Each structure stands twice: as structure tokens, then as C-alpha cells.
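Record type: monomer structure entry
Structure origin: computed from sequence
Chain ID: A
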Amino acid sequence: MAEVTDDTMVDGRYRILDRIGSGGMADVYLADDTHLGRRVALKVLHRRFAEDRDFVERFRREASSAAGLQHPNVVSVFDRGDHDGTYYIAMEHLPGRTLKELVAAEAPLSQLRAVHFGLQLAVGAGFAHRRGVIHRDLKPQNAIVDDNDTLKVTDFGIARAGASEITETGSIMGTAQYLSPEQAQGHGVTASSDLYSIGVMMYEMLAGRLPFDGSSAVSVAVKHLSEPPVPIAEIRPDIHPLLEAAVMRCLAKDPGERYGSADELAADLEAAKAAMTEPGATAMYAPVVDEVYEPLPEEPRRRWPFVLLALLLLALAAAVAYALTRPQEMAVPGVEGQQVEPATRTLDRAGFEVRVRRQEDPEPAGQVIDQDPESREEAEEGSTVTLTVSSGPGTRAVPLTRNLSPDAARKRLAAAGFKVDDAIERRPSDDVPEGSVIGTEPPAALQKPIGSRVKLIVSSGPEQVRVPDVVGLTREIAEEQLTERGLTPQVEVEDSEEPIDRVIAQSPADGESVDEGARVVITVSAGPPQPDPADDPADDPVDPMPDTVRVPRVTERGRDEAADILRGRGFKVVFVGPGRNEPEGAVVDQDPGAGSDAERGETITLTVDPPTQ
């Protein structure tokens, strides 16, 4: 492929002006769209990816999906095509800097500014998730911020076209600091993985450092899997508890303990923002600054008697004036046990100033637990009454209970000051033994009020898998179907009149439920037994039985999967219907029907509908 240089015309439309970036997958150029007269960012694939047909097909599909994401917080994809042996995507060009550059220059950010960026990340991600597009590589390098602090996420959908962060002989590629634990293990990636990455980005914005770092990508990935992040409050004591709780929930190791959607995260960030901007919030969470008093300059001593006499006269006059204008003393109203707002109004109407100090206490938040002066004590009108107000019992991180027995988990939670629900929730788990605790709701490390309720989530053992019917399929297709279901095929060979490599029996049988990873024994035909040389085959009668096969049920399967099953049993297949040319279309009818007998080589007609969008 020829080098893309300034003034190169790509695909007869885009004139290259300058290279503005380079990454592991592509180079990015500033270009003029000569058809529409606008500036665009042109992402041109590296040659090694352009030569991988599977990659290019995924790239094409995901670019098409991303082109449908029109949202204020997502960079728009305008066009895609090929040029000189490689492929490109034309995207919206944004002036500004990456969020990574902003954080490097200004972190730690103010809490409200971090919430401002976090909300835009969550809203943009939620919009894409609702349309079936997962980013898979959310990091501050993929977010552009303009001069008005408007943020847009780039590479939505394109990141999904590339390989996982863990690829190529088990090595870790890309920016490991923002990977979710499931990505670090090479497991399936969901919308929850994007939320974990947003949590890492917000942690970095607020703390001025990453939750996990190390000397190599592998060491960072291990920390994502095994170590809890340091609570932000230990790095930044002024952090608001609601904001810290939202970030730490995003960073839960188990995807099931994170937010169910980006919209839920956005709602909690809005709640934290409201709590930080309500009256009095700044006083509760701002650091205390000691007042500094400078001594007054010492007055030079006066030695003249008449000056001393004048001072005595002034002092006498002041004493008389004070006696005449002395504030009236009155009884202080008792407001202990009231909420702070009505208590303040009562004292204000009585003519007193009010000072509020807060402290943790078992009494409900906002309740007056002490006052100085005390109730009915005499004090000067206009003087200050100090109210001590409960800020609630305080918060504490929910302790880790994973792999404990339910009784041990209850004791650990009770010792930390939490109440445990009697009812438990059971979920399947491949990692936690049956009967042991997977985690809690709220999840571990989340800051919650002392005394709040916690529910235990207990493992019901590995997830159950339904064994598919593979009798009549070829050995290769049968093994592939079992492996796709998470089962382990074990092959046994037996003489049979069935064709060689045809599955003639299976155990467990079709429809049984077994643990994921369980072994399924399939018996494969070795062909007819060899005749005994002593026998004369000419003496054997010929029984010309027709070669018939039971037609399996393939409706509700994908088009390609259904075709593989039927062809594995010796049938020919034709497709009809509006989705006949779409690989992901669903089979809604078959002719002949399931259970009927048909000769091998006969054609089965499948009616295919387009996939559900």
C-alpha cells in the first residue's frame, strides 16, 4: 500500500491535509471532504489488518452499526470504504484535546467537573448500548473534550471490530489499565464491561491516579482480577460519599454487582451532583481552614496625666452606656430532638443566632442531639446558640464475603455494623462452590450507612446446560455443537451400518440438563463390520432397504446452524423468505416437517425471516 501523504486523494473524495494521530489499529488523518465541503477525521487501517478477511468483515459490520449512533456525546461516523489495498472510516472531526491529556494536565479534577464528564460518558454509552453497540475499549484517549467541556466518545463500535485486549498467544494488548476483569480473562464482553471502564476513568479524574498500575500489562490485569481498589476517600478526604459509592460500584469485580445499565449510573451521578450543590453541602465536605489572627500593634504608653484622666472618663462613660443599652437576657428555647430546620426557625424567632455543627450519631440524620446554651438557660438576646446535629450513623464499606459460608458471611457483615436479610438470592457460578457466598447486594467495597440492610448472594453451582441432539450428525459437526454449548465431547467408535463418522448414539441424551463443561459421550460409526473370509457373500440375500433418515427440528435456529444440522444428516437445503440471504436470519418453517422420514439427498426447504433488530 502506498504511503498516505499530504494531498493524497482517498477514494476520489477525501483530500489528506495532515496526520493527527496513530494507534495500534489505524492512522488518523485530517482530511477535506471535497463532495460536501467539510473537514473530517479519516481513520485508515494498518495493512496487517486489511489483509485479514475476518477482521475486515467485523470492521465493516461494526462501522455500519456505529454509523447509526447519532448522539451529542458520540463522535459521528459518516462513511466507510477502501483505498489502495486497505480500508478507511470517515468520522466527525472535533477540535479539542483528549480526556487523557486534560487529566494529565489538571487532575485531580473538582468533583462537579468529574461528574460532568462522567455523566456525558454514561449517557453516550447508554445510547449505544440500547442499540446493541458495545465499545470494548473505553479509555480517556478515546474521549474528545472541547473548550466548553463538552465530551464526545470516539471509536464506538470500531473498537469492537478489533481483537479483544487479550489476544495472540495470551498476551495483553492495548491499554490494560482500563480493562474490565472479564476482558482480562478473555471472557465475553457486555455493556457492564464499558461501565467498569467508565469507573476507572472517573477514579483517575477524582484521585489523580489510576486504581491499578504496574510494571507490565500482565501485572495490571492481575490486579484488576484480584485486588480491590484503594477507596477514593483515603486519597481525597473531601470526596462526597454518594460520588465515591457510584465510582466504586462501577469497579466491582463481578459484572452482576455493577450497575444494570448506564442509565442507572447516570441517575446516581445526578443524585450525587444534587447532593453536592444543595445548600450546606460545601460546608459539610470542604476542608477546614484555621483562622489566623495577627496581633494588634502595641500602643505606646501615654505618660501625661490628663490623657489618663480622659481615658478614665471614657471608660466610665462606656460602663454607663453598656448598663443603659445592655442586651436583655432571656431563656433559650429547648430544641433537642427536633430536625435542624424547624429548630433553627424557633431560635431565630426567639432572637438568637444559630451555629450548626454536625457529628455522626445513631439518631436520624438532621436531628438536633445537643444545644449550647441548654434549654431554658438564660442568654443574651442576639447571642449564638450552637446546635449539634446528627449526620447519621456514618458510612462504612461493605466487607468482602466471597467464598465464605453464609453463616461466616453473616457474622462478618454484623461485625461491620450491617443487618443481613434472612432471605438469600441464589445464582449459578463457575468459580464459587455451591453453597458458598458469591457476593452481596449492595456489593463489597461500596460505602453504605452503618445499620443498613445487606442481602447475600449464594452460589447454586455451575450453570446448567441443555444437551443438544447430535445423533445422525457427522462427528465434526456434533463436536462443534457440543463445544459451542460449553460441553466437552468424548468420542467412542463402534461398528455400524451407518456411514463412517456418523453419530449413532449419545450420553447424556438430548434434552438433559448438565453442568457447564460436563462430558458428553458420542458414539461414532466405524462403518459396517468386516466380513468373515469364511463366509460367501454371494450366499447372503440382498435386502434393498431405502436409505431414510428422520428429519430433525431446526425451526427457531439460525439459518447457518440449521443448514449445518440438515447437511450433516445427508440432506440438501434451500432457503426461501425475506431473510434467506442473511446469515443471522431465524428459521421459522421447514418442509418436510420435523419427525418425518426422508431419503438422504432429499431437499429440505427452510423459510427464513430477517434477524430481529
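Annotation 1: Residues 161-174, 282-302 have pLDDT under 50 and may be disordered.
Annotation 2: The first strand starts at residue 9 and ends at 10.
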